[in-house]
Recover the amino acids of this structure.
């Protein structure tokens, strides 16, 4: 009797565990489904070519025009800028933490990197608005809200991602590699940069892709420093304001309705496709690693 | 001889660059922290923390209460689901199971989705389709899904790090699988699970983009626990104050930012302590 009861609760809880595990799948399907259901009709109505290859975004004009090319380019530039700033600094910092940093410094530097990861994006945005934007305005002219200010703030924001993943992959390179190189007379720096770093490259790539994902998807920090003006393609400059895919949604959603609102959701769909592509790249790296 | 000197110079330059980048990263953090805290902390007073909201006080009280409410209820929904999912993945699923692969893929995908997309989804499903309108409830539903991958992966890591001999001991003494999970595995994995929960708290407290169209930017004079009210959280309070652009509201944005940073500080401190305990556990 006792054992059948135990058996029963065992079966029941097993079902509960299984159902809980399925919830993530259901959530992903629901997110895809609802975004597509609300976004695809708008893309159909506007025309996919017109939507992603037209630079004119005039949703409140008559007749309206819904082209997001300028924002796709904007997101690309801002992300490229963030990578150009964040990856070299982050990678060097990871090398520093893994191979050069004395223990006493590590005890300060490691928590500092973790803290950098925990700071909310709104605080980064506010810092950018109060420090980076005025700095650019005073030293380079213009109003300071620009691709450059967005790239700098995003570059800082992706640092912890780049650093922690690269650091752990550098640490996982077998010490024998290093000893071999040092034994042959290479300096410590040559060993780290020519032997250890190449051996850690899949971890470094993973960190860069995660960094790209974070930069492409970041909204609140960018909306506070980018200026958010829709620029014609030939007017897009490093020191000029820019609008990205994410900030397009956040600046206009509060007053949009009808096709305008749906076109903003469709902007979210385009963003989602970007992220899916990045995720696929990540799992490709993972499976390649598993094979080696 | 010349080659050797060149190699030495290059090595020296590399070493200096590496040190410079390390110091730069820490320097950026210290600069951001000091910049916000030095201007913000002196502005924090009783009226700002516990007063009624109006255009003079710009009090954060009702936002703080809403933030706490959201944290508690979202965790209440997500933690059981996330931990159960982790239990399934580590203790019950068979190796090479197809479902496990799909679940892992789903968790990774969820983890990579930007907040603004969660916000859009919450707006479409909870605010409009289910008729929750812009409310704390819509915000909670959205957040619960958003923090799920965080809870799942930290719980999974924690459960995996429980040594197999613990399980074998328990099973060998005649305890069932379920009993072993709840009496042996989960208590041992608790520090790791807790650190995931604390990280999730940090994520909720700092979240803006997912909430702006779900729980909204509205602010009430006095705190309410009404789930159907549209009410901003602390992070959105900061965003609104910062974007109003008035000198007084900007000063209060510094104060709100300081509170957020202090919370992040506490969150990081606690997770590091917990992680230390796990480290010691697996050394034993």
């Amino acid at each position: 009797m006792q054992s059948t009861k135990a058996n029963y609760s065992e079966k029941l809880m097993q079902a509960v565990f299984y159902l809980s595990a399925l919830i993530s799948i259901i959530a992903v399907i629901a997110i895809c489904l609802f975004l597509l259901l609300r976004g695809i009709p708008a893309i159909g109505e506007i025309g996919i070519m017109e939507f992603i290859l037209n630079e004119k975004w005039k949703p409140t004009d008559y007749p309206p025009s819904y082209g997001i090319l300028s924002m796709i380019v904007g997101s690309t530039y801002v992300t490229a800028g963030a990578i150009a700033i964040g990856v070299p600094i982050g990678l060097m910092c990871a090398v520093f933490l893994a191979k050069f940093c004395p223990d006493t410094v590590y005890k300060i530097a490691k928590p500092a990197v973790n803290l950098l990861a925990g700071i909310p994006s709104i605080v980064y945005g506010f810092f950018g608005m109060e420090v980076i934007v005025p700095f650019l305005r005073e030293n380079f002219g213009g109003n300071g809200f620009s691709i450059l200010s967005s790239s700098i703030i995003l570059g800082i924001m992706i640092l912890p991602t780049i650093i922690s993943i690269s650091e752990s992959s550098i640490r996982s390179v077998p010490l024998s590699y290093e000893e071999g190189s040092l034994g042959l007379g290479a300096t410590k720096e040559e060993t780290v940069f020519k032997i250890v770093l190449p051996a850690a490259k899949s971890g470094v790539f993973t960190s860069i892709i995660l960094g790209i994902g974070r930069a492409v998807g970041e909204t609140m920090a960018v909306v506070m420093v980018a200026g958010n003006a829709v620029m014609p393609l030939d007017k897009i400059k490093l020191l000029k304001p820019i609008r990205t895919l994410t900030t397009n949604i956040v600046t206009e959603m509060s007053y949009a309705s009808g096709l305008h609102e749906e076109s903003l959701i469709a902007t979210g769909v385009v963003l989602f496709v970007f992220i899916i592509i990045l995720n696929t790249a990540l799992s490709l790296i993972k499976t390649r690693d598993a094979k080696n | 001889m010349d080659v050797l000197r060149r190699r030495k110079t290059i090595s020296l330059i590399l070493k200096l660059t590496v040190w410079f980048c390390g110091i730069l990263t820490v320097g950026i953090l210290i600069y951001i922290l000091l910049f916000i805290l030095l201007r913000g902390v002196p502005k924090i007073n009783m009226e700002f923390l516990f007063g009624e909201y109006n255009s003079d006080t710009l009090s954060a009280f009702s936002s703080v209460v809403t933030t706490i409410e959201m944290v508690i209820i979202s965790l209440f929904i997500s933690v059981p689901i996330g931990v159960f999912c982790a239990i399934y993945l580590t203790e019950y699923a068979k190796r090479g199971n197809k479902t496990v692969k799909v679940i892992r893929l789903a968790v990774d995908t969820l983890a990579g989705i930007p907040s603004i997309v969660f916000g859009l989804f919450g707006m479409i499903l909870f605010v409009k389709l289910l008729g929750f309108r812009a409310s704390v409830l819509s915000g909670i539903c959205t957040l619960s899904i958003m923090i799920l991958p965080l809870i799942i992966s930290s719980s999974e890591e924690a459960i995996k790090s429980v040594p197999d001999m613990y399980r074998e001991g328990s099973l060998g003494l005649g305890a069932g699988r379920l009993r072993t999970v709840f009496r042996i595995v989960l208590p041992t994995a608790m520090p790791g699970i807790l650190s995931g929960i604390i990280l999730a708290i940090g994520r909720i407290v700092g979240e803006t983009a997912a909430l702006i169209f779900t729980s909204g930017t509205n602010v009430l004079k006095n705190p309410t626990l009404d789930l159907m009210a549209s009410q901003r959280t602390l992070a959105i309070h900061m965003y609104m104050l910062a974007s109003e652009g008035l000198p007084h509201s900007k000063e209060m944005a510094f104060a709100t930012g300081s509170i957020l940073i202090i919370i992040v500080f506490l969150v990081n401190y606690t997770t590091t302590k917990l992680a230390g305990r796990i480290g010691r556990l697996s050394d034993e």
About this structure: Chain A touches chain B through 86 residues (CB under 8 Å). Residues 2-48 of chain A form one domain. Residues 2-46 of chain A form the longest helix (45 residues).
